[in-house]
Amino acid sequence: MLGSKEGVDDQFIGIIDDLVVMSENDSELAEGLKWIDAQSQKNGVTFYEMAMIILRKHMAERRAKEWLKNKLSQ
């Protein structure tokens, strides 16, 4: 399993639920959420867990890029 339910709390679920509501008026957001849903089914995790996994991966990649940029500029 790629994620755990312990990493998904009520506040995060609320934020994701808000995004789902907003996607009714944003086709690009709706497509992204459909992709997350497909990935969650493919990986056997909940929609919320998949959203958390993707967010954590994005944050880790961003931090790594910032770290590398700082190292190269020294």
Ordered list of secondary-structure elements with their pairings:
Elements: H1 10-22, H2 27-43, H3 47-72
Helix pairs in contact: 2-3
Question: Would you mind describing this structure in some detail?
Answer:
The chain is mainly α and 74 residues long. It has one domain (8-72). Helices cover 76% and strands 0% of the residues. The protein contains 3 helices and no strands. It has helices at residues 10-22, 27-43, 47-72. α2 (27-43) packs across α3. The mean pLDDT is 91.
Task: Give a concise summary.
This protein is 76% helix and 0% strand. By secondary structure, it is mainly α.
Shape descriptor reads elongated
Distance between the termini: 39 Å
Residue stretches low in confidence (pLDDT < 50, at least 5 long) are none
Please give the share of residues in helix.
Answer: over 70%
Number of domains: 1
Number of helices: 3
Largest sheet: none
User: Can you give the mean pLDDT?
Assistant: 91
